[in-house]
Design a protein that fits this description.
The protein has about 300 residues and is an all-alpha fold. About 80% of the residues lie in helices and about 0% in strands. The longest helix is centred in the first third of the chain and has 43 residues.
């Protein structure tokens, strides 16, 4: 009996460790997968409607999270706080900036290579830091400022080295990064009052993002989609659209889950690692051109990002 009692905690520890590994591995794979699937839909399937594609993903997250809540499988602990007025003032703005971030971010894939976009993402901490400073959320230390400056230099070198540089695509991607930075600040302020489980967070946020995304679709894409018979493409290749939408829902849940099981630092580390792996994948398997100057710039950004995380 003594032997059994000693082994039981060990098996429990192994089970917990296995769960962490599985969740982290799934997150590492799901991120690049949804990028490649979306790129395939936009380019290869002749569906140049990034806002509509993004809207499908947000609508799927809204649907799945609502079903889980309505079936009683997930408890909503903040119903009393999230009134109609609270939702309009505090949640809807987050949804609006989420729609802008995701929509503009997807637009960039129409004119930029997948590898180059991943390099541009290394500049995101710079934009986020500026935004949180402007909003007075936090003041960066000297080490953070130095790391951010190095990231800026690395990103600048990567841009100079890009042989297929598209100015509109680059600018629209950075606008997406600004919108994402504002969303994160608004979310940080909101989470000072409320605590959401992964599904509960989607239950409140995803519908707001979907609503704002529908406005963008109606304004910029609906007429062109009707004229080009875009819905026929969706019907013919429904499996790709379903896969992209499901991956989006899964990715949101996995990111929350990783933070709960480990930390936000681990989430950032995995995100950087999978981004670097995706750059390598694009160069080897998709034959996207990556210059030596881009590699040098991206390497500088990655090293500086590691320093940024250490001192944050």
């Amino acid at each position: 009996m003594a032997s059994v009692s000693r082994q039981t905690p060990h098996r429990g520890a192994m089970s917990s460790s296995t769960l962490v590994v599985v969740v982290c591995a799934a997150y590492a794979v799901a991120g690049p997968a949804i990028i490649l699937v979306n790129k395939h839909i936009l380019s290869d399937l002749n569906f140049p409607f990034p806002y509509s594609l993004t809207c499908m993903g947000l609508a799927t997250s809204s649907l799945f999270s609502t079903i889980l809540v309505q079936l009683g499988l997930v408890e909503c602990r903040n119903k009393a706080t999230v009134t109609s007025t609270f939702y309009v003032k505090r949640v809807l703005p987050i949804g609006a900036f989420q729609a802008l971030a995701m929509g503009f971010g997807t637009v960039a894939y129409l004119s930029l290579t997948v590898a180059f976009i991943q390099m541009l993402k290394a500049f995101t901490p710079v934009i986020t830091l500026v935004i949180v400073y402007i909003f007075g959320v936090e003041t960066p230390s000297r080490q953070i400022v130095v790391a951010v400056a190095a990231i800026s230099i690395g990103t600048f070198l990567a841009v100079l080295g890009e042989v297929q540089l598209d100015l509109f695509g680059t600018v629209i991607h950075e606008v997406s990064a600004v919108a994402e930075g504002i969303r994160l600040v608004l979310m940080q302020v909101l989470l000072q009052q409320l605590r959401f489980s992964p599904v509960e967070g989607l239950y409140y946020m995803a519908p707001a993002g979907t609503l704002c995304m529908l406005v963008m679709v109606a304004t910029f894409e609906a007429t062109d989609m009707s004229n080009r018979g875009a819905l026929d493409t969706v019907r013919q290749h429904w499996q790709y659209f379903a896969l992209a939408s499901t991956l989006g829902f899964g990715l949101n849940l996995l990111s929350f889950w990783i933070i709960q099981l480990t930390s936000s630092v681990m989430l950032k580390i995995i995100s950087v690692a999978r981004t670097a792996a995706l750059v390598l994948w694009c160069a080897v398997f998709l034959h996207e051109k990556i210059t030596s100057l881009e590699i040098i710039g991206y390497t500088i950004s990655l090293v500086a990002f590691a320093v940024y995380n250490r001192h944050q």
